[in-house]
Amino acid sequence: MKKTLLLAELVLVLAAFGCGAPDLDTVESAPETLQTAEGALTAANCTQLTTSSVIASGNDGNVPGNTLDDLRTTRWSNLGQGSWIDYDLGASKSLSGVTIAWHQGDQRYSNFTVSTSLDGLTYTQVYAGRSSGTTLAAETYAFTARTARRVRITVNGNSLNDWASIAEARPCGAPVATSGVVWRGDFETGDRTQWTSTQMVSSDRLALVTSPLREGRYALKTTVRQGDDPINASGNRNELVKMTREPVGSEYYYRFSTMFASDFPSVRTWQLFTQWHHEGGSGSPPLEFYVYGEEIRLNIGGDPGVIVWKAPLVRGQWQDFILHVKWSPDATVGFVELYHQGKLVLPKRHIATMFPGMLNYLKVGLYRSDTVSQVGVVYHDGWVMARSLADVL
């Protein structure tokens, strides 16, 4: 969880820093400090892909082809925020990151984004961040694997000036450090396709938004109004569904973040925002997170079940959760463990986490009693399902 929190802090730091005054020269003339590195570029956590060609938005005489020559004494450089360099893989391939050796990378950090494209016309941003500013070596920046033909790195200045300057760069083809990640539902595809299905009365009830965000570029805004009943069942709801169907005896970690709007209703009845529902259909689920009055609760075992954890409801602030579950209808085998806001708040507790003979599936959004008249808004972000704590961090 600490890594997740640091990521959020990094985004805030980026927003606070300016790009510095531009160089006065027409070419980047800072002293050369990069040492010669002969032979192929080396980088951790990256299976490098070959490129057929490279273009750029401009250059100062240091041409884009220099980033592929395995010589870190050469570079591509261009003055101006928004300068970009674009690599053509020659055919559509699976991409999961880029590795970049920055010119003067031990003296300044560069702000940049990475975008991919299938056709060279429409690009999707898949990464935003900055270099470390502490090394001349190649740094690998990972993103969720996707199919693309072109990779574009756009540089928005650095901590000293507005120059874009890259010594070497390669697209990465193998999954980068995500071997234990089973599924992501973080909305970074820009739509709801990471999820199996929706239960909503209209698309505005499960809308992707660019603010507020816990991470990345998109979050989910869930809105429920009295009378919203998309599946003709009890209560009011708008929810996303993921058919996780975890096998009996399986063990997983789930990381997710939730924020309740500043006017989220305070009512002494149930308002579920995350649940693992049983295949049986009707009745309370075997595992549910919900709001009751001014409390957030985790209930196990259906109705009435057992409230294994609760905390005060906080509005207008992201709530970070990591849930560790072993799925079993046997209370001596199954267990739950919960981290909240980076702290272990529920040590491992053995309890039945499934109903006999039925697998579970995940539902996220807002599902509440139909007696609630006020509009309810909940935001969700950062969903990851993995096999270890390290994988979700």
List the helices and strands and how they pair.
Elements: H1 2-16, E1 53-56, E2 76-79, E3 83-102, E4 110-117, E5 124-130, E6 139-158, E7 163-172, E8 181-185, E9 197-199, E10 206-209, E11 219-224, E12 236-242, E13 251-260, E14 270-278, E15 287-292, E16 295-300, E17 306-312, E18 319-326, E19 335-340, E20 343-350, E21 360-368, E22 376-386, H2 389-392
Antiparallel strand pairs: 1-3, 2-7, 3-6, 3-7, 4-5, 4-6, 8-22, 9-12, 10-11, 11-22, 12-21, 13-18, 13-22, 14-15, 14-21, 15-16, 16-17, 18-19, 19-20
SS class: mainly beta
CATH architecture of the largest domain: Sandwich
Mean pLDDT, as a whole number?
88
- CATH fold type of the largest domain: Jelly Rolls
Give the SSE string: HEEEEEEEEEEEEEEEEEEEEEEH
Proportion of beta-strand residues: over 45%
Largest sheet: 8 strands, antiparallel
- Domain tally: 2
Summarize the structure.
With 393 residues, the protein is mainly β. The chain has two helices and 22 strands.
Report what the structure shows.
- It is a single chain.
- This protein has helices at residues 2-16, 389-392; strands at 53-56, 76-79, 83-102, 110-117, 124-130, 139-158, 163-172, 181-185, 197-199, 206-209, 219-224, 236-242, 251-260, 270-278, 287-292, 295-300, 306-312, 319-326, 335-340, 343-350, 360-368, 376-386.
- With 393 residues, it is mainly β.
- The chain folds into two domains: 18-172, Jelly Rolls; 181-392, Jelly Rolls.
- Strands 8, 10, 11, 13, 18, 19, 20 and 22 form an eight-stranded antiparallel β-sheet that branches. Strands 1, 2, 3, 4, 5, 6 and 7 form a seven-stranded antiparallel β-sheet that branches. Strands 9-12-21-14-15-16-17 form a seven-stranded antiparallel β-sheet, with no helix packed on it.
- Strand 14 (270-278) and strand 15 form a beta hairpin.
- The termini are close together.
